[in-house]
Amino acid sequence: MNPSKLLILALALTSVPCTAQSFESEHHDFQVETVAEGLEHPWSVAFLPDGDALVTERAGRLRLIEDGTLREDAIGNVPEVAARGQGGLLDVVLHPDFEENKELVISYAHRNSEGMTTRVMHATLEDHRLNNREVIFTAEPRSSTTRHFAGRMVFDDDHNLYVAVGDRGEKQRAQKTDDDAGGVHRITLDGEPAPSNPFLDNPATNDTFYTVGNRNIQGMTRHPETGAIWSHEHGPQGGDEINIIEAGTNYGWPEITYGIDYDGTIISEKTHKEGMAQPLHYWDPSIAPSGMAFYTGERFPDWQGDLFVGALAMEKLVRVELDGDKVTREEDLLSDWGERIRAVTQGPEGTLWLLTDAANGRVVRLTP
After folding, report:
1. HEC assignment per residue over the chain
2. What positions carry a catalytic annotation?
């Protein structure tokens, strides 16, 4: 990142008029500073090479935070989205070579006469608008429900794109391998199944599938050292999970679960089943996790290597300590802040950025 641009960004952010709130934690005291506000259910944030940030609003707008200030006019030529229930404009992820090719992908809920689904579009960002738009993935079949679109995405080193699709609130779809719901798909930017996908030679399973048996993934990130893709997903009432996404794995929903249904009925008597993976970690009661990021910055040295997970229902930020792939302890942050946290991302200046899920949502950052 250009050092002069970073200086401009830091000065702009420190001049935000909203008063910062101070908090204490086990390792670091920190402040929560507002970067931007007045966003309608912001869902995802992605940082451009110059330090500016793209933010999606679930209502269907893609916004730019430029030199620390939210630009009033939205980015143009964003596709029409189905902003119903949990649907709308969801994730935005930059191509690994964005600085050269200006390419990005967005996920969103799409509706036609056959129903709603999760869709992914590839485009270039030029002159404050999306150009060269191309739909590269549409989960089939569609459904009339307005729940569990998932939509989180991440690139790997080979520039393959991992796309999470929820079970759409229809449990058994997550175990149907000819149904795109309830799993992680790995595709190229041409929309083709990625080479070496685990089910390419299995005619009974859709060839874009990378994993199956996932309920509703709301956080996905790459481990900064191993490159492994970590995710978390909503359980029902109890049973939110952290998983490492591994090729060909069945994560069990709804055949195994640590949760019960919202009306108190039993979904499954089993928490283990042969051929189905156990979560790395689970929460009971549910916290409704959303957004996740490993911290690798210098501003909070005692947090380096920790995993940060936002929570919607429990309205907190969870700091997860790890020993390799094992969760050793947790610390709840911002428990008395009173905000639903939708996304968690490390900023280019080594702070943590959060999005609050509200009709008047905010972009905030944690600073020492």
Report:
1. CCHHHHHHHHHHHHCCCCCCEEECCCCCCEEEEEEEEEECCEEEEEECCCCCEEEEECCCEEEEEECCEECCCCCECCCCCCCCCCCCEEEEEECCCHHHHCEEEEEEEEEECCEEEEEEEEEEEECCEEEEEEEEEECCCCECCCCCCCCCEEECCCCCEEEEECCCCCHHHHHCCCCCCCEEEEECCCCCECCCCCCCCCCCCCCCEEEECCCCEEEEEECCCCCCEEEEECCCECCEEEEEECCCCECCCCCCCCCECCCCCCCCCCCCCCCCCCCCEEECCCCCEEEEEECCCCCCHHHCCCEEEEECCCCEEEEEEEECCEEEEEEEECCCCCCCEEEEEECCCCCEEEEECCCCEEEEEEEC
2. 148
